[in-house]
Amino acid sequence: MEMQIFDFATIANATNNFSSNNKLGQGGFGTVYKGMLKEGKEIAVKRLSRDSGQGFDEFKNEVTLIVKLQHRNLVKLFGCCIKGDERMLIYEYLPNKSLDNFIFGS
């Protein structure tokens, strides 16, 4: 499975510098932003919290596992972005609500 490594400037540009207008949600592991790449592809960017305590090795293992778990019923991981202690996961954007809404209802 292929996975792209995105540079920070590309992701910052795609999310309008992580604008609050592009914020889709927030959880214990970070904030998710909607973005648009230059070629028109919509993405969801999970910007991991610096307070998560996750080191580089743990992040690398998580990305490797997610790539191996690609399935037609799972959101596709396009790649990741690492800059210093910044770690981000770049997913395909799915416009129809969040998974918890489908599981638990509104």
TrEMBL record:
<dbReference type="InterPro" id="IPR011009">
    <property type="entry name" value="Kinase-like_dom_sf"/>
</dbReference>
<keyword id="KW-0067">ATP-binding</keyword>
<dbReference type="InterPro" id="IPR000719">
    <property type="entry name" value="Prot_kinase_dom"/>
</dbReference>
<keyword id="KW-0732">Signal</keyword>
<keyword id="KW-0325">Glycoprotein</keyword>
<feature type="domain" description="Protein kinase">
    <location>
        <begin position="18"/>
        <end position="106"/>
    </location>
</feature>
<dbReference type="InterPro" id="IPR001245">
    <property type="entry name" value="Ser-Thr/Tyr_kinase_cat_dom"/>
</dbReference>
<dbReference type="GO" id="GO:0004674">
    <property type="term" value="F:protein serine/threonine kinase activity"/>
</dbReference>
<protein>
    <recommendedName>
        <fullName>non-specific serine/threonine protein kinase</fullName>
        <ecNumber>2.7.11.1</ecNumber>
    </recommendedName>
</protein>
<dbReference type="InterPro" id="IPR017441">
    <property type="entry name" value="Protein_kinase_ATP_BS"/>
</dbReference>
<feature type="binding site">
    <location>
        <position position="46"/>
    </location>
    <ligand>
        <name>ATP</name>
    </ligand>
</feature>
<dbReference type="Pfam" id="PF07714">
    <property type="entry name" value="PK_Tyr_Ser-Thr"/>
</dbReference>
<dbReference type="GO" id="GO:0005524">
    <property type="term" value="F:ATP binding"/>
</dbReference>
<keyword id="KW-0418">Kinase</keyword>
<keyword id="KW-0723">Serine/threonine-protein kinase</keyword>
<dbReference type="GO" id="GO:0005886">
    <property type="term" value="C:plasma membrane"/>
</dbReference>
<keyword id="KW-1015">Disulfide bond</keyword>
<keyword id="KW-0808">Transferase</keyword>
<keyword id="KW-0547">Nucleotide-binding</keyword>
